[in-house]
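Action item from last meeting closed. Structure (312 res):
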């Protein structure tokens, strides 16, 4: 009887110990998440917004030229792009190359801030779940994809307005046209693998760099690494960028919104398969520069805040 009682008491202690352990783990997880939300959210949102604005401001002229070709049937070449830019500056002035940039800033600040927040938050959860600082490739890709998806979903209507304004529309006409969600599906289909690929390449290179070079990358090296990440991402998803631009500026016909299938069919029929790659040569220059500036500015600002002691 005594042995049985002792066994029962020990079992109860074991169960209580297990419950305490589970409670400790649950409390620990809650603390980890809360710590991220309070400390890293400010870092991710503010630094991400600043990084996005810096990048978009630098590449705005190239972006406007590229969009003008993407939404037309005009043949694209680098020479034609240069001539288009020269003509715009001559007729409308240099500042016309930043037309619609105020809307770009209104869109890119929350987009970039939310994108970096979603990436850092999901990455933090993965690292906590796997108990590692170096995530497997699949998890790096998923964290990057979450960044692109989250930022796009919350800010897409502003992107549609930005494109219409940059191509000569007014706020009144752009809003009256409606269809502020036109092109969302191809946008998500493009941004998810693009962001996932870019973050995967960036994180993988940065993890190996200190072991290879015995130091952290310098600013120009970070720019180069991030440019390579952006370039690889561009090769994966660019045709969808052309399709989404066409859908963003398309006007409804007979009360029916433009459909993805119709836009692709019409584009290929008129311009051939090469039409899906229109502007890609310019994007090879613009895309990596934009992502490189954005990621590098984000890293530098984040490091600055950490040194100042504002973010743990």
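Sequence:
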């Amino acid at each position: 009887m005594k042995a049985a009682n002792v066994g029962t008491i020990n079992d109860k202690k074991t169960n209580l110990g297990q419950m305490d352990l589970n409670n400790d783990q649950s409390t620990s997880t809650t603390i980890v998440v809360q710590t991220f939300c309070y400390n890293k959210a400010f870092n991710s949102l503010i630094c991400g917004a600043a990084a996005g604005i810096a990048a978009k401001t630098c590449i705005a002229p190239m972006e406007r030229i590229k969009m003008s070709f993407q939404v037309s049937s005009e043949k694209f070449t680098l020479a034609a792009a240069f001539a288009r830019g020269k003509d715009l500056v001559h007729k409308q002035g240099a500042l016309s190359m930043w037309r619609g940039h105020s809307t770009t800033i209104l869109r890119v600040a929350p987009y970039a801030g939310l994108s970096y927040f979603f990436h850092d938050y999901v990455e933090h959860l993965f690292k906590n779940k796997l108990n590692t600082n170096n995530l497997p490739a699949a998890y790096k890709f998923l964290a990057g994809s979450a960044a692109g998806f989250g930022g796009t979903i919350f800010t897409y209507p502003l992107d549609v307005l930005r494109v219409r304004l940059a191509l000569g529309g007014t706020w009144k006409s752009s809003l009256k046209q409606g269809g502020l969600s036109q092109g969302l599906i191809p946008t998500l289909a493009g941004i998810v693998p693009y962001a996932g690929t870019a973050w995967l390449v960036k994180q993988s290179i940065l993890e190996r760099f200190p072991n290879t070079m015995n130091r952290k990358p310098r600013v120009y090296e970070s720019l180069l690494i991030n440019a390579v990440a952006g370039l690889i991402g561009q090769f994966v998803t660019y045709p969808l960028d052309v399709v989404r631009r066409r859908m963003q500026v398309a006007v409804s016909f007979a009360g029916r919104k433009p459909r993805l299938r119709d836009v692709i069919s019409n584009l290929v029929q008129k311009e051939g398969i090469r039409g899906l790659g229109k502007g890609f040569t310019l994007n090879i220059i613009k895309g990596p520069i934009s992502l490189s500036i954005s990621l590098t500015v984000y890293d530098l600002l984040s490091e600055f805040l950490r040194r100042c002691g504002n973010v743990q």
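Note appended to the action item: The two ends are 56 Å apart (CA to CA).
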